[in-house]
Design brief:
2 domains, 2 strands, 144 residues
Length: 144
Amino acid sequence: MAQTKRLDVARESYILLTICLLDLAATVWLLVTERAVEGNPIMSYYVEQGWDSLIAAKILLVVFPLFIAEWGRRHRPRFVRRMLRFAIAAYIGIYALAFTNTDIMARTRRPVTDAVHEIHGKASAATYYPLEDSYRPLSAKPRQ
């Protein structure tokens, strides 16, 4: 009877993949609702190319390093597990810091006018809702 190889992926890899997929969903939601802009200049390029490019780039930039980590785990399992745990803590910490230092969820939208703007090279008539006080930290005093 032929012995089958079982794909044994570390729990930390699954956790990191889940965090990254949630980040992808949050990024798409924030961009679609115009509550944020992509701050990473590399990812900003992919946003300009379209949603499929952004999603493909984000997934590739998560799956490829996880693949390398899983390969390395065969040779140095303790080291890789520690690095994955560090990556999880760093990702959550940076993400929490980004959300606590901005008022992304509290921003208000006010309709201005019906405007024509371009979406991926096509003109589209829509109501434009600019953000008020964008990128103002919660701790900052309101402008007068």
